[in-house]
Amino acid sequence: MISRELLEILACPKCKGDLRLTESGDALICDACKLKYHIKDDIPVMLIDEAEKLP
Known about the structure:
The protein has one helix at 4-9; strands at residues 20-21, 27-30, 35-40, 43-44, 52-53. It is mostly beta strands. It has one domain (4-53): N-terminal domain of TfIIb (Single Sheet).
């Protein structure tokens, strides 16, 4: 699980906006861009091309 300190300094690579952790703790979401960045092995994959587009 991502620490609160890390979550506070991470930003969306596309818009540089805030990210929030999903309830299950397996991804980070940018509400502005509607992108979901998955977390693999406790490491956020912060690549725009690998992000999942949300409806």
